[in-house]
Amino acid sequence: MPFDDALHTLTLSDDGSYTAYSKEYDEHYHSTKDGALKESLQKHVIPAFELIKKDEVNILDICYGLGFNTLATILYYRQNRPQTKLNIYSPELDASLVKSLQYFTYPKEFEVLREIIISLSREGFYRDEQLFIELFLGDAREYVAKFEDFFDIVYQDAFSPSTNPVLWTKEYFADIAKAMKKEGVLTTYSTAFRTRLALYENGFHIYLNKGEGYRSATLASQTQLPNAAAVDMEHKIACNPDMQSLRD
Ligand SMILES: C[S@@+](CC[C@H](N)C(=O)[O-])C[C@H]1O[C@@H](n2cnc3c(N)ncnc32)[C@H](O)[C@@H]1O
After folding, report:
1. What is the mean pLDDT of residues 212-223?
2. Rounded Cα distance, 216 and 76, in Å
3. What is the pLDDT of residue 7?
């Protein structure tokens, strides 16, 4: 069965991995210029991996979509820190998308994860000695509100603030802040001032994630990160006095 349906089209991205275009949101699931796999690794998985060094790591993947962040995380930890126990929690509103992922054309790197891909697509769940993965087929806002002081890592990878504003508001990030451990790290592709402001207003320190071959992104934590490139939010606020964060 092909992956393409009335709402999604398969799109080849510039790193050779396929992503999808959503007709409903009129947006791609990943940056087609950075590439789906590369974006997932450079903007989410690697920066978080380098900052959080624990035997057991709790991850919130907002939102599951095509599952790249969850799958790339499993692969990267297996290759670089195989003893770590990973618990991944991921909400996704689109249940029919999740069902169709067993037919998605994933990069060859994910071939070793075939059993996990099938289980997540069919059951929304996977567990083995090293891994616990739960997909919540429903609203991320409702899901996040259930957690307190729990997540070490949050991948903030919703559709863009202009397309899906409810997952970028000050109130939404208040729930995220509560759900995270104080020393936890949030990663996002968004560098929009309004996104950073909504995080800052909830006590996050804001950092630039910049590197070779991908567009800059953002890191945030409620604890200061000594070796990261801090964004001077007070200066930016002074330069943009009329700018407001998104609100519910
Ligand atoms: C940019 S995509 C996520 C890409 C994903 N991280 C990946 O690696 O493929 C955004 C996803 O958010 C989902 N979504 C939109 N609003 C949502 C909500 N309120 N709760 C849960 N999921 C939502 C969409 O169905 C879509 O699959």
Report:
1. 96
2. 21
3. 87
